[in-house]
Amino acid sequence: xxxxxxxxxxxxxxxxxxxxxxxxxxxxxxxxxxxxxxxxxxxxxxxxxxxxxxxxxxxxxxxxxxxxxxxxxxxxxxxxxxxxxxxxxxxxxxxxxxxxxxxxxxxxxxxxxxxxxxxxxxxxxxxxxxxxxxxxxxxxxxxxxxxxxxxxxxxxxxxxxxxxxxxxxxxxxxxxxxxxxxxxxxxxxxxxxxxxxxxxxxxxxxxxxxxxxxxxxxxxxxxxxxxxxxxxxxxxxxxxxxxxxxxxxxxxxxxxxxxxxxx
Length: 263
Known about the structure:
This protein is an alpha/beta fold. The protein is built from ten helices and nine strands. The chain has a nine-stranded parallel sheet with strand order 1-9-8-7-6-5-4-3-2. The chain starts with 7 loop residues before the first helix and ends in a 13-residue tail after the last helix.
């Protein structure tokens, strides 16, 4: 048995997030990208955990999704983790060159879960990277909640959907066997696809993203999905509100009277 090198607060938050993933109720995480968005979501009584959106953090730094340097990705996650008292799970792209070291660094400033994507790397390589992450977290003494992402459907290209689903299940089962608590399969929206993934991975093991056209969270919960997140969609909605306000102001409008006062 390894001794914990993480703070007691981090250990406790990881345990809390683990309990939320294992509960029969679906965990709904509304993605954030900076301190103020994190504090805004954390202030809601329904919020149980905070998830960052890597795409949104990258955009705030001027990078395309997947093109943000590691140090900036960790800085973005750290800003969120230090802004709230809730468990924080971070989107860390593909884990970068050394995924185990990436996770160790994230745990060091209080992150207790992460999305790490396989980008359809060769099967054995993808599984090895998951195993390295879970081993590193164990060495830190943290029940780290790796939301192991497979892009089997999202990057499936022209191959038949049945083949992509089978690949997602095979990769997901291997990720679970390598120690990942749950498996994230973006692109799984339709009821029949989700049903097949839950059947293949088990109830309480699948994580999905609530893209436009997705089912309501309660319906995914009934199907046995563990978690739903919303990725960069939250930032896009916020930016649309900003764009609409700016358009109105340029047209002669005024700031709405019901705008919250400055603290």
